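lol ok so funny story. i was supposed to be doing the assay writeup but got distracted and ended up predicting the structure for this chain instead. priorities right. anyway since i did it might as well share w the group, maybe its usefull for someone
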Amino acid sequence: MSRRSFLFSMFLLVITLFSLSPSYAQVAEPSSGVSFPAQVNVGGTNATITGVGLRKRAIFKVYAIASYMDSSKINKAADPYTQLLTDGPAKQITMHFVRDVDAASIRSAFEDSLKNNIPSYATSPAKKNADAFLAAQVDMKTNQEIVLHWTQGGKIDLVVNGQSKASFTDPVLARGIWSIWLGASPISGDIKTGLVTKMK
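and the output, tada:
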């Protein structure tokens, strides 16, 4: 084998190994065709995908969604919803929009869901931060993303299209936001089930 052929073979081997690496692996949401990375970095912590889902309104697909949690803290013998709704382990939610949605509609949808998932919402101490969270929402275009981080102490980071939009420290609001998809009153039973399929 010539030196050139050998180097080319090694190049192909390296590319193959990288493609098989967990950090390059992808998990697809089948109904939308959107693929999410199998692992992400949340505040310096490696987080593994716990599942995916699709938000629909009537017959329209709105966004594909993926959930992540600190890889070292996932316990497949424990209740997945308790783990994903408990402060401590680093977590992420990624919403990948598959249609254009205006900011007003996003705010309205979030607010309706928070009312159902934060006890005594109107008088809750979390209401002030919830209002700021809603105000930070912007118009979303197809293939744009909202990313939410929840780290130790109830720290919430809102990232839109790769840009930080707002940060809060509020465990009640953090749990309320995650409960939109994973709590007792989720916006979709199918999403709730789909977001924990890889924790079982």
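The helical segments are 3-20, 80-84, 103-117, 127-135, 171-182, 189-194. The two ends are 48 Å apart (CA to CA).
back to the writeup now i swear
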